[in-house]
Design a protein that fits this description.
Elements (H helix, E strand, L loop, with lengths): L3 H13 L4 E6 L4 H12 L8 H4 L1 H5 L6 E8 L16 E2 L8 H18 L3 E5 L7 H7 L4 E2 L5 E2 L7 E11 L5 E2 L28 H5 L17 H7 L15 E3 L3 H4 L2 H6 L10 H4 L4 H5 L2 H7 L9 H16 L5 H7 L5 H14 L2 H7 L5 H12 L1
Parallel strand pairs: 3-9
Antiparallel strand pairs: 1-2, 2-7, 4-7, 5-6, 7-8
Bound molecules: cobalamin and iron/sulfur cluster (2 copies).
Length: 383
């Protein structure tokens, strides 16, 4: 084992750089975790996220790294006041309330990597995008437990906790890979410190499972991404399957349904302190999604999570939210969406116009050049 002062130094540095919580564990991924992950993939629970299949081998074996510093930062922001003007309908998941959190965390992670390198260690940091089972490692490092929602839930910070990891490669004098010794004081806060991961604190609660609008949460504490609103509104390309459109309700981007009902989140309250949410991301005006060119949209939202679904995806989501609003005041915007250059947006507009009962608009859309738009418009006329 390499001396424990290295673990302490890097741990303290992470907290100084603004992370709320940090913990150490080994990079070893037990065979059962790999089997579970593989079976989740085999059942197609990852929907269209093919990269999760491609990452299987790397996620299962993190050699030559030996230890991991797992970091957590709260995104339990308090909501800012709503800006005036525009069509500000729909909710955005909290992680997306600030300019891209990956970009905010990367320079802080780079400082930890540099500090590790100065101590003679190999180091590589990831936040979200890496081939890493971040939540498994988070539980191993005692940051929290695997909630029934599939979220890592922290006793101190609730479910609104973003994760990042710094992989460390340590070598002994003979040049062989070694673990870093972690001082026992890190584990003292947990009375069950002899366990190999954080104890489960869900008890008999099932609030998240009951709150999920699309029944995406499975018994084994994983989710079926095909049904998850977060997947559908952020990652899914093309029309959102019709059975989920009403259940999406007012979620414009992402979904916090299973996070906000968690009693551990409620207990913690609004504790995120590092960045201020941007009101234009918390309550976005939907109009630019239909009026900006894709290029201008990319420029305007380059540093936000809106850039992931791109203009087409955000306009598509906005149509569903407007359709679900039940408010005919939004018909004008939906009629604009019905003329969008992207057929996926026109198709979503057709669905929403059907929900709001605009028969004249639907008749026009029945003549649309794209068969799926005509089909949805026709269905809307029948309902
Ligand atoms: C793909 C992905 C998604 C997909 C699939 C989600 C899922 N549940 O698998 C979609 C797009 C749906 C999604 C949604 C969201 N995501 Co996401 N997502 C990821 C990503 C990139 C990979 C997750 C993954 O591999 N999923 C496959 C499943 C099978 O793997 P798993 O969750 O790790 O669990 C496996 C093993 O780890 C094992 N396991 C063993 N021990 C333990 C212990 C714990 C604590 C857990 C949870 C699992 C576990 O069990 C599973 C079977 O093999 C991670 C970042 C990363 N690199 O890990 C972020 C990540 C999981 N997402 C995150 C967030 C915040 C969200 C959303 C809340 C965003 C939102 N508000 O819309 C939702 C929440 C949905 C939910 N209830 O899980 C955070 C979660 C933080 C936390 N406290 O748990 C992460 C870690 C990103 C980050 N760096 O902060 N996400
Ligand atoms: S993020 Fe929303 S849709 Fe996905 S599992 Fe949680 S509550 Fe269900
Ligand atoms: S809502 Fe209840 S069951 Fe779900 S993760 Fe939180 S404590 Fe566990």
């Amino acid at each position: 084992m390499l001396p424990s002062n290295i673990a302490t130094e890097l741990h303290n540095l992470a907290l100084e750089r603004g992370f709320d919580v940090a913990g150490w564990c080994s990079t070893h991924i037990p065979a059962q975790v790999v089997v579970d992950y593989q079976s989740w993939l085999e059942r197609g629970r990852h929907a269209g996220m093919d990269y999760l299949e491609r990452q299987l081998a790397r996620r299962s074996n993190l050699a030559p790294y030996t230890s991991v510093l797992v970091l957590g930062i709260s995104h339990a922001f308090a909501a800012p006041p709503k800006p005036a003007g525009g069509t500000r309908v729909g909710r955005v998941a909290r992680y997306a309330w600030t300019p891209d959190y990956h970009a905010q965390l990367e320079p802080r992670l780079a400082q930890i990597v540099q500090a590790a390198q100065k101590l003679g260690l190999g180091a590589k940091a990831y936040v979200d995008h890496g081939p890493i089972l971040e939540r498994f490692l988070g539980a191993r490092a005692f940051l929290g437990w695997r909630g029934k929602s599939g979220m890592l839930v922290s006793q101190k910070f609730g479910a609104f906790l973003s994760l990042a990891v710094v992989l460390i490669q340590a070598k002994n004098d003979q040049g062989l890979n070694e673990q870093i010794e972690v001082p026992s004081s890190y584990l003292e806060s947990s009375p069950e410190s002899s366990r190999d991961s954080h104890p489960d604190r869900c008890g008999r609660c099932t609030a998240c499972v009951r709150a999920c609008p699309t029944s995406a949460i499975l018994e084994d504490r994983t989710i079926d991404a095909n049904k998850c609103i977060s997947y559908l509104t952020i990652e899914h390309r093309g029309p959102i399957p019709k059975p989920y459109r009403r259940a999406i309700g007012d979620w414009l981007l992402g979904c916090d349904g299973c996070l906000e009902v968690c009693p551990w989140s409620a207990k913690v309250g609004e504790v995120a302190k590092l960045w201020e949410p941007d009101p234009e991301l918390v309550y976005p005006n939907l109009e630019p999604f239909f009026t900006l060119s894709s290029r201008r949209f990319e420029k305007r939202y380059a540093h936000s999570a809106f850039s992931r679904p791109r203009r087409k995806g955000m306009a598509r989501n906005a149509c569903l939210v407007l359709g679900n609003s039940g408010d005919v005041a939004h018909l004008e915007l939906l009629n604009l969406a019905a003329q969008d250059e992207a057929w996926e947006v026109r198709e979503a507009a057709a669905w929403a116009l059907g929900e709001l009962g605009d028969v004249v608009a639907l008749e026009r859309l029945c003549l649309d050049a794209h068969p799926q738009v005509c089909e949805t418009a026709l269905e809307g006329m029948k309902d």
